[in-house]
Structure formats: structure tokens, C-alpha cells
Amino acid sequence: MVAEDRSPDWGIWKHASTAELWEAVALTLNIDPKEVRHQPLVWMAGPLKPGVRLFDEEPVFKSRLMLAERCLEHTLAGAVRGQTRRADTEISLQTFAAWAISEVAWDLPPELAGLAVEAASTGMPGRPGKSKELIDHEFHRRKVAGETLLSLSAEAGVLLSWLIKNHATKPRPTVGVIQNNIRLDHRNWKANRQSAEWKTTKI
Question: Which of 27, 34, 35, 28 is nearest to 4 (CA)?
Fold first, then answer.
């Protein structure tokens, strides 16, 4: 029996800037989103309750989707437009590909992995690297000056506001993209700060 070919048309998808979360997960398994097997929407009891999208797919698809939903707007940033059903959230495909490789170490089709490489080469998915350099410099200044905020999302928001105010003509990444780019440095700064506070309390 010949296995069913459900491969995506990468000639199209490699140029797509966004995808719904479930579509992106399908692409990680080299499945064309149009070929994903759906079950009919099962509607929850009660008025104004959202429908639950069910997929008739292999466990690996369901487990990847569950993880992506749980990580959304935490380690997985870059949401473009939210939906009632998290699986339908529209996200940056480059950001998703970079997350899938760096955060959860999924094996990806080379075409999708290539989007992550493109994101890394510019410093920010879909944005010229110059904005990243400016933001990195300001983030470093804030650390030295003791102005860094404990909340990663809050710090990213301050950096975006600074970029808009001081470099109005430069490309503007989203808060989620900034979070992804400063995440490791912010985590290290926070750990060092907590370590220093702990040592102080021991004196």
C-alpha cells in the first residue's frame, strides 16, 4: 500500500509570513495544513461557549499542538492575532520555526528550518538587524544603570517604547519578537540579581 503524500507546497509556505498555530504544527511534521484530518467541531454546552477544534491525527501532532498552545506568549512569542481557540491563533511563522528549534528541539523539514535561519540572520524575524542592535545597546545600558525590569514582557515593552520615541524611522519589531531576542540575557541578568540578593541576606 502506497503511503499517502500529504507534503506541503513549500514553494508557497516558505513565503508565508504567518500561519495559524495548528497549521504551523502541521508544517513541523511535513503535513500540508489543507491535508490535516479534522473531526467536526464539538460544541460545548451553554451559550457563548467556543467550539473545540478536534483533529483526527497521530499522537505526535496532538502532543506538539498541546505544547505549542501551552507555550504561547511565554517561551513562544510572536502572536499576530489571537483567537478564542488558541489553536487558531495567528503567529509569525519565522518566530515559530526559531522557537521549535531553539526551545523544544523539534526535528523540522529543511524548508521550515530555513525560516528559522532567516530569522537568525536578520536578528529579528522579518526585521532588519539594525533595530536589534539599537535595542541590544539600550538593554545593556539599562542593565548597567540598574533600570531593568523583572518582568520580561514589561522590559520588552519599555524597549519598544524607547525605540519608537528615539528612533521613529527605524523598523519596529513586536514586543514578542523583542522578548525572544532578549530572553536569554534577561534570564541570566535575573539569575545573577537573585543570587546577589541571596548572598546579601546571608551576610
Answer: 35
Given a contact cutoff of 8 angstroms between Cβ atoms, the answer to whether 183 and 151 are in contact is no
15 and 103, same domain (yes or no): yes
Domain end residue (candidates: 80, 97, 122): 122
Query: What tens digit of pLDDT does each residue of 114-159 get?
Result: 887 665 555 555 444 558 889 999 999 999 999 999 998 888 888 8
Closest among 24, 3, 183 to 108, alpha carbons compared: 24
**Is the domain of 103 the same as that of 154?**
no
Do 75 and 140 sit in the same domain of this protein?
Answer: no
Q: Is the pTM of this model over 0.85?
A: no
Contact 160, 175 (CB under 8 A): yes
3-state helix, strand, coil in the chain (%, to 5): 55, 10, 30
The position carrying cell 509556505 is: 13
Q: Please state the separation of Cα 29 from the chain's center in Å.
A: 18
Question: Which grid cell is 195?
Answer: 543570587
Q: What is the mean pLDDT of the chain?
A: 81
Domain that holds residue 164: 129-202
Q: Does some domain include residue 93?
A: yes
DSSP tag of 3:
P
Q: Which of 51-65, 95-109, 122-136 has the lowest mean pLDDT?
A: 122-136
61 backbone dihedrals φ, ψ, rounded to 5°:
-65, -45
> Based on the structure, what is the number of domains in the chain?
2
